[in-house]
């Protein structure tokens, strides 16, 4: 164990002995996300930037292993040099984003429509628990599935079970051909256009719509990735205008990292709904994953948004609260079903019996 990791272990054991809460801090780019930690007399900050570096990378094995404090940009740059990528398309929200924060938040980007979400790419993880031990789950090769479910459990856990100190991720080759088609359509027209995309044998990897600010019009972007012949055939079938590659790259980056003008201002709700759900008419809206994710702005009551999401077979998250909307008393995430909450509480007691790691960040009161 190196010195920096040993120091983190010592900090955890000291905090546990003194019943101090622990706030796990990476690059700070996603601190807006999730519930705020309850006020505490004493809080220990674990700075994950102290453990950084890519440990192993085997391009032929399509696996990269890195310490949690490693900047996401460093990993992406290294993969790009070998013609590979993180296919789940993680949002950055800033240059300081770390791979540990990516896994802990569990967020995926537009390409996850076609390539799948982050949890499908986590092969293994090392966890620093409340006793200062390093627990190892999963492996570093795709064929090693031991402990794989625990690695997935840590994905999106917001640090509630312990400190993710190392992760192994599956990577994929960059597509041979990458093209973006754009269409000037309303939200309803775009949802109708996107409805059959999953059922068709086409290399559609992302589909998103943003309003233009002029009436009900907006721009639908559909991203095609794959073999040249398949992409060209899909372009002929779908129509639309092919966007210049540099402009397309910027379009998707701005949408993924929420620097598009639509995302200016807060509050912002994220609704995950069934495919083919029609427009919800809750306020200014953009959508991702061909309509399976709706971004809605406005000072909406949590009950109103949650009921709409549940009626559409999904759930709602107050993604950015802003300064005008009080936080829901039961947290920014849709409350768990009683049975799921019981399981989560049991897991929390097993990994963190004194409840010192990021208390309340994922589930209010846990």
UniProtKB/TrEMBL annotation:
Keywords: FAD, Flavoprotein, Oxidoreductase. GO terms for molecular function: glycolate dehydrogenase activity. The keyword Flavoprotein applies. Gene3D superfamilies: 3.30.465.10. It is an enzyme of class 1 (oxidoreductase). Its EC number is 1.1.99.14. PROSITE patterns: FAD_PCMH. It comes from the Bacteria. Residues 1-174 form the FAD-binding PCMH-type domain. The keyword Oxidoreductase applies. NCBIfam families: PRK11282.1. This is Glycolate oxidase subunit GlcE. It comes from Orrella daihaiensis. The lineage of its organism: Bacteria, Pseudomonadati, Pseudomonadota, Betaproteobacteria, Burkholderiales.
């Amino acid at each position: 164990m190196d010195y920096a990791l040993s120091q983190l272990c010592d900090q955890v054991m000291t905090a546990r002995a003194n019943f101090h809460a622990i706030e796990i801090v990476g690059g700070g780019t996603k601190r807006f996300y999730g519930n705020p930690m309850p006020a505490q007399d004493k809080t220990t900050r674990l700075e994950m930037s102290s453990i950084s570096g890519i440990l192993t990378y085997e391009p032929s094995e399509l696996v990269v292993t890195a310490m949690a404090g490693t900047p996401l940009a460093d990993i992406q740059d290294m993969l790009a040099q070998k013609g590979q990528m993180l296919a789940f398309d993680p949002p950055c929200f800033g240059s300081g984003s770390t791979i540990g924060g990516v896994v802990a938040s569990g967020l995926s980007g537009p390409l996850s429509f076609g390539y799948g979400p982050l949890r499908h790419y986590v092969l293994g993880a090392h966890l620093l628990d409340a006793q200062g031990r390093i627990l190892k789950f999963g492996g570093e090769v795709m064929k090693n599935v031991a402990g794989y479910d625990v690695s997935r459990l840590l994905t999106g856990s917001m640090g509630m079970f312990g400190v993710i100190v190392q992760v192994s991720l599956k990577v994929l080759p960059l597509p041979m051909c990458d093209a973006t088609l754009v269409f000037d359509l309303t939200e309803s027209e775009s949802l109708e256009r996107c409805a059959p995309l999953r059922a068709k044998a086409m290399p559609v990897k992302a589909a998103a719509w943003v309003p233009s600010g002029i009436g009900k019009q907006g721009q639908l972007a559909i991203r095609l990735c794959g073999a040249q012949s398949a992409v060209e055939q899909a372009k002929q079938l779908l129509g639309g205008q092919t966007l210049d590659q540099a402009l397309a790259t910027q379009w998707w980056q701005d949408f993924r990292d929420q620097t598009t003008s639509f995302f200016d201002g807060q509050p912002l709700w994220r609704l995950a709904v069934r495919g083919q759900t029609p427009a919800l008419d809750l306020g200014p809206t953009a959508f991702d994953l061909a309509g399976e994710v709706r971004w809605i702005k406005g000072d909406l009551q949590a009950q109103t948004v949650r009921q709409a999401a549940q009626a559409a077979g999904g759930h709602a998250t107050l993604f950015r609260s802003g300064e005008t909307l009080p936080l829901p008393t039961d947290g920014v995430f849709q409350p768990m079903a009683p049975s799921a909450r019981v399981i989560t509480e049991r897991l929390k007691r097993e990994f963190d019996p004194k409840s010192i790691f990021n208390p309340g960040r994922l589930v209010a009161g846990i």
